């Protein structure tokens, strides 16, 4: 356990805190309101955006951390081994908690962490190239991400799945009169079942950025690649990533630039997000976070809000105790 570094971006921790707080509220059933439940298949609700936000912030934090380490002349091999260790720990946590479901995005997360170490630019472009310098400086990373994205697309639309049509993106089961009953998730579902096995998969499946709108044709079911959280479709990734970028941009301006807001109370939760995530997953419906209530929305809402509030209070207490759980 080590205290956080000085000169942190409060906006980054705040957005992470927003994501983890909403995620906990959603997992506590969100007052049983439909918009706090995951979309059954295609579509997007509040519940569908928080986990990719958390992933996006994870990647952003990693990039900033790596830049700091390289400036301190930390050997790349040491950085590589540290990132590999953290990736394995996060992967293991996902298997143990049985809540991360979806092998394809697990692979993407691991590969993203590894390929981020390929190179780090140290040249300064002329001011006239400023609008495109992120592409020019990081052309290697852009190339690798494109290759990984291409592999994902090829697997999704060309992999032969026994008893299923190529490129199937439907929920299987009784959909379309049960014509593709055992084809849930198409290639993604097939790879999950082969690699992880049914017992290690999430057992309760629910079965927008400009690029996402284009891929989905701005519709729920009629696009080329519908927005789909269950499959982590490309349009879903672009949509939620764009939202995370916009949210961080706003928070950065308000918190770090203008200092109109300290980020509290979300800032404290963001500083111990892993502990809160694991903690609420293990405690589940246990008292004092939750207890049995009636069937009305307001009763469920009150209990669920209390459960989230208690975790926020715990995160504040841990912050002032200088206790931070990291992996």
Q: What descriptive keywords fit this protein?
A:
single chain, 327 residues, mainly alpha, 12 helices, 0% strand
Q: If you compute it from the alpha carbons, what radius of gyration comes out, rounded to the nearest whole angstrom?
A: 21 Å
Low-confidence stretches: 99-105
What is the oligomer described by this structure? single chain
Helix count equals 12
Instruction: Estimate the helix proportion, in percent.
Output: 55-70%
Which class best fits the helix and strand makeup? mainly alpha
Overall pLDDT: 77
- Beta-strand proportion: under 5%
Please write the string of helix (H) and strand (E) elements.
HHHHHHHHHHHH
Characterization of the model:
The structure is a single chain. The protein is an all-alpha fold. It has one domain. Helices cover 56% and strands 0% of the residues. The longest helix has 24 residues, at 234-257. The N and C termini lie close together (9 Å). Residues 99-105 have low confidence and may be disordered.
Fold blueprint:
Blueprint: H1 10-27, H2 50-71, H3 76-97, H4 103-115, H5 133-137, H6 139-158, H7 186-195, H8 210-216, H9 234-257, H10 266-271, H11 273-283, H12 297-320
Question: How do you describe this structure in short?
Answer:
This protein is mainly alpha-helical and 327 residues long. It is 56% helix and 0% strand. α1 crosses α9, α3 (76-97) runs antiparallel to α4 (103-115) and α4 (103-115) runs antiparallel to α6 (139-158).
